[in-house]
């Protein structure tokens, strides 16, 4: 039972353009969502998060949008840079403050071409 | 703040051997998590500790797996009688109540 799904295994964009990574979930009890970036042979690096009481959160070039009715979140990267090339994971948690076990999607590999 | 550290970074073992991994969380983080990641998948939750108490274990954690956090600081994950299906990246993460989970670099296990 895949509660968090990233249906695009890969995405290729041109440097300077927008990258949009998508994530769908099935569990309406999720109250906190996070995006992590992962380079090969390294652990995931935290990027940005959003609580279920919000629908948008921005941090520099990264913006996360949450659509609770559609059970969908997306990560926008503007402008995309070659250094953004990595695998991106969305993750979700139920009752995050009480013990934030994360449920991860399968990941989307982003390639930003110069 | 030196980040989450894991040791070893790589481990190759023969089927049937026991292996032990160590995780040192960020200091003052009271919660510590273990995840496993296989190729093409996202990390999967294995278990987590709040201080020294192990509060949740995934059904993925068979009886060959045991984790400890004896003094509420570092943690160890032991796999007994390893099988080829145990080959994966083992990730440790830590956080403080309600804050962001930060991951270590992982231990890559290969069982031959």
Give your account of this protein's structure.
The complex is a heterodimer of chains A (114) and B (112). Chain A is mostly beta strands and 114 residues long. Chain A is 0% helix and 55% strand. Chain A has strands at residues 4-5, 10-14, 19-25, 30-38, 45-51, 56-59, 62-67, 72-77, 86-94, 103-104, 108-113. In chain A, the strands form two sheets. In chain A, strands 2, 4, 5, 9, 10 and 11 form a six-stranded mixed β-sheet that branches. Chain A starts with a strand and ends with a strand. The model of chain A has no long low-confidence stretch (mean pLDDT 94). Helix content of chain B is 0%, strand content 50%. Chain B contains no helices and eleven strands. The relative contact order of chain B is 0.34. Classes of the chains: A mainly beta (114), B mainly beta (112). The A-B interface holds A 4, 6, 9, 34, 36, 41-46, 49, 89, 91, 96-97, 99-107 and B 4, 6, 31, 33, 35, 40-45, 48, 50, 55-56, 91, 93, 95, 97-98, 100-106, 108.
Proportion of helical residues of chain A: under 10%
Major pleated sheet of chain A = 6 strands, mixed
Globular, elongated, flat, extended or rod-shaped: what is the shape of chain B?
globular
Q: Mean pLDDT of chain A, rounded to whole units? A: 94
Order of helices and strands of chain B: EEEEEEEEEEE
Q: Quickly give the structural class of chain A.
A: mainly beta
Radius of gyration of chain A from CA coordinates: 13 Å
What's the total count of β strands of chain A? 11
Low-confidence stretches of chain A: none
Straight-line distance between termini of chain A: 38 Å
Number of helices of chain A: 0
Q: Report, as a whole number of angstroms, the end-to-end distance of chain B.
A: 36 Å
Query: Which strand-content bin applies to the residues of chain B?
Result: over 45%
Total of helices of chain B:
0
Strand tally of chain B, please? 11
Shape of chain A: globular
Succession of helices and strands of chain A = EEEEEEEEEEE
Report strand % of chain A.
over 45%
Biggest sheet descriptor of chain B: 7 strands, mixed
Q: Classify the helix fraction of chain B into a percent range.
A: under 10%
Oligomer: heterodimer
């Amino acid at each position: 039972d895949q509660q968090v799904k990233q249906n695009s295994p890969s995405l290729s964009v041109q440097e300077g353009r927008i990258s949009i990574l998508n994530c769908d979930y099935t569990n309406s009890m999720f109250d906190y969502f996070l995006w992590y970036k992962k380079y090969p042979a390294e652990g995931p690096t935290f990027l940005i998060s959003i609580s279920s009481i919000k629908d948008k959160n921005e941090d520099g070039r990264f913006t996360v949008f949450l659509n609770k009715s559609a059970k969908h979140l997306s990560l926008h990267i503007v402008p995309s840079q070659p250094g953004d090339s990595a695998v991106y994971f969305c993750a979700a948690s139920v009752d995050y403050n009480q013990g934030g076990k994360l449920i991860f999607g399968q990941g989307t590999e982003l390639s930003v071409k110069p | 703040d030196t980040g989450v550290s894991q040791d070893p970074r790589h481990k190759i073992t023969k089927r049937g051997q026991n292996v032990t991994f160590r995780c040192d969380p960020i200091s003052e983080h009271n919660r510590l998590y273990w995840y496993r990641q296989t190729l093409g998948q996202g990390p999967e939750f294995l278990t987590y500790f709040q201080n020294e108490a192990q509060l949740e274990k995934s059904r993925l954690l068979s009886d060959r797996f045991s984790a400890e956090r004896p003094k509420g600081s570092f943690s160890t994950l032991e796999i007994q009688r390893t099988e080829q299906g145990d080959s994966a990246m083992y990730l440790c993460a830590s956080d403080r109540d309600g804050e962001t989970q930060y991951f270590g670099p992982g231990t890559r296990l290969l069982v031959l």
